[in-house]
Amino acid sequence: MNWEDLELSPRIISGLKKANFKSAREILCHSGHDLQRLANLSKCDVKHLLAVVASSLRRRPPTTALQLQRGECLSLEPGHRLTLACPVLDSFLRGGIPLCGITELAGESGTGKTQFGLQLSLSVQYPQEYGGLGSGAVYICTEDSFPIKRLRQLITQQSLLRPELPQTLIRSIRFSDNIYIEHAADLGALQVCVSQRVPVLLSRGLVRLVVVDSVAALFRSEFQADEAAERARHMQTLAGTLHRLSHSYNAPVLCINQVTDVIDESDQARCNFGLVNSKVLPALGMAWANLVLVRLMLRRLQGSTGSGTQDSAPRRLEVVFAPHLPQAGCLCGVYEEGVRGLSSTDPGQ
């Protein structure tokens, strides 16, 4: 790297060359004390160096909490979302899921997480005036085979799920042709997929949604309990790649996650993010929680009867944390035509 291209003093540049630093990323991998020692710089010099280097690598300016409060971050405004194809769910999430960043949906097996992924893979194909993005989706499976039969059923029921849309529009979209399915059997294959094949689809405008189902499966199978540091490093690499793709192409990323049982109550108190008295928590711990923008939790309610023509046990979709949403819950059900929110919302608990 040519250090002269950055706004650094000759003293700092000389210290970097003597310490044999080759790149800006290498600078960010060292602590402030190491930079002072290796490059013989003052604390003030190191602070300025880190600020300049970080600015050179950042593609977009940061968004402050004050900008969010004032509504100055357009990517988090209601008009800049991917619809869930349900007015109740869209109202609950203020328009749908954000276009930039990772949205995580966690829950126990059988709660309907994959149903959300499939529904979003269809809704993304509608024009923007109908809440879509006018493009396709890439669906990455890491554990089970892709539910092609369920996808076909959802396609045939689109007119029932979205009766407010022109029927000619629904019939004109070739839904199954615009969903690209990938299977990743290990972390290496997953990383190759998101770093090589998915960018090609995004750059050509063929897709605007990335679904990973599920993110926990491979990390749980490839790492032992004493390999937490190595596992966290791989999670950071994966999340970093997904975030770059999302922000570069303004494409939402949905990561479906499993859950883990709460054994130690002290562990729950440290990382539950408000999930009080919950017997399960999203898998992969704090290391993964700090890498996602929005965390949603889906639960099947016990002892409840279904409603509607197709009997479906109600679920509760919860916002665990999000920069633009309060912690709240919304009742929903999985029906033949897809996932629909129920009219009564539960802001508490």
What does the model show?
By secondary structure, this protein is an alpha/beta fold. It has two domains: 3-57, DNA polymerase, domain 1; 70-346, 3-Layer(aba) Sandwich (Rossmann fold), CATH 3.40.50.300. Helices cover 39% and strands 20% of the residues. It is built from 15 helices and 13 strands. The chain has a nine-stranded mixed β-sheet with strand order 5-4-6-7-3-10-11-12-13, sandwiched between helices. Strand 12 (329-335) and strand 13 (338-346) form a beta hairpin. Helix 3 crosses helix 4 (43-57) and helix 11 (187-203) packs parallel to helix 13. The longest helix is centred in the C-terminal third of the chain and has 22 residues, at 228-249. The protein is globular. The protein starts with 9 loop residues before the first helix and ends with a strand.
CATH secondary-structure class of the largest domain: Alpha Beta
Q: From the 3D structure, determine the CATH topology of the largest domain.
A: Rossmann fold
Beta-strand fraction estimate: 15-25%
- Quickly count the helices: 15
* Unreliably modeled segments: 305-309, 345-349
Q: What value does the average pLDDT take?
A: 87
Radius of gyration: 22 Å
CATH homologous group name of the largest domain: P-loop containing nucleotide triphosphate hydrolases
Task: Give me the strand/helix succession.
Answer: HHHHHEHEEHEHHHEHEHHEEHEHEEEE
The side-by-side strand order for the widest beta sheet comes to: 5-4-6-7-3-10-11-12-13
Query: Tell me, what's the shape?
Result: globular
**Tally of domains:** 2
At CATH level 2, the architecture of the largest domain is 3-Layer(aba) Sandwich
The count of strands amounts to 13
Fraction of residues in H or I helices: 25-40%
- Return the structural class: alpha/beta
The quaternary structure here is single chain
Distance between the termini: 53 Å
User: Describe the biggest sheet?
Assistant: 9 strands, mixed
